[in-house]
């Protein structure tokens, strides 16, 4: 069953067409990676999905409802169902609240009146993303980047979304931490039937978490298919270039996240060894 269907989406910033006739669909429980170079329009698509920005043409049909034409009032009860996770949630995590309260907040917004129930649910969510119970009373600055990202994911999950939009959610993390977060995401999807739109400039990381890939260049999708196909047999020259810069994704495709990390780390080490050999 289709959860999200984007058709003929166009988003302009003044005269500049950042998204130019983009169409894709995502089944409930499915996962699509949106991959492309910086500036290709990925975040603009994400912003249009949560209506931080209004498209100039096209439709975004979510669970049968076109979000682009809904009034604010009719959109409001749907908002919680699409949650965004950003590159570094630091800015969006209230520095004065501890992790448990940060995660409990959306549960309160959803109408849960019992503080005990909210705190218990927040503790469960933090546990699900692999944070120890000692994390509950700590504040954002006391966590590492990877841990903060997990809090951001737990907070997004607290809204009970159907769709998670992850915009470069692991890109700022170093390779082994990135892999841990990817592994958590893969587990959550398998266990909870979540649907992911996973945005990344790195074609190498998508094999771990998504079944489908759409490749974006200058606001247009140039190639779309199963992750395995696109990684193994990229058709477009641009995709081939992304693939080369993504550190041997063919090795990575189809593997579990833990193995992905090792493959990425090994490829990076080989590359930097080659670079320093070339420099000397
Ligand atoms: N607020 C904005 N105003 C004007 N141009 C923007 C704005 N945000 C993004 N752009 C431009 O739109 C294009 C797509 O940007 P973006 O969606 O952020 O790409 P990506 O997330 O793939 O890096 C780029 O050319 C960028 O410079
Ligand atoms: Mg972006």
Automatic annotation (TrEMBL):
Has UniProt tagged this entry with the keyword Nucleotide-binding?
Answer: yes
**InterPro entries the UniProt entry points to:** AAA+_ATPase, ABC_transp_ATP-bind, ABC_transporter-like_ATP-bd, ABC_transporter-like_CS, P-loop_NTPase
An MF annotation (GO) of this entry: ATP binding
Keyword Transport in the entry? The reply is yes
Which positions are tagged coiled coil?
none
UniProt-listed GO biological process terms: transmembrane transport
Which Pfam family, just one, is annotated for this protein? ABC_tran
Q: Which domain of life is it from?
A: Bacteria
Q: Where is the ABC transporter domain?
A: 4-243
Q: Which UniProt keywords apply?
A: ATP-binding, Nucleotide-binding, Transport
Q: What family is it from? A: Belongs to the ABC transporter superfamily.
- Return the protein name: ABC transporter family protein
Q: Which organism is it from?
A: Kribbella caucasensis
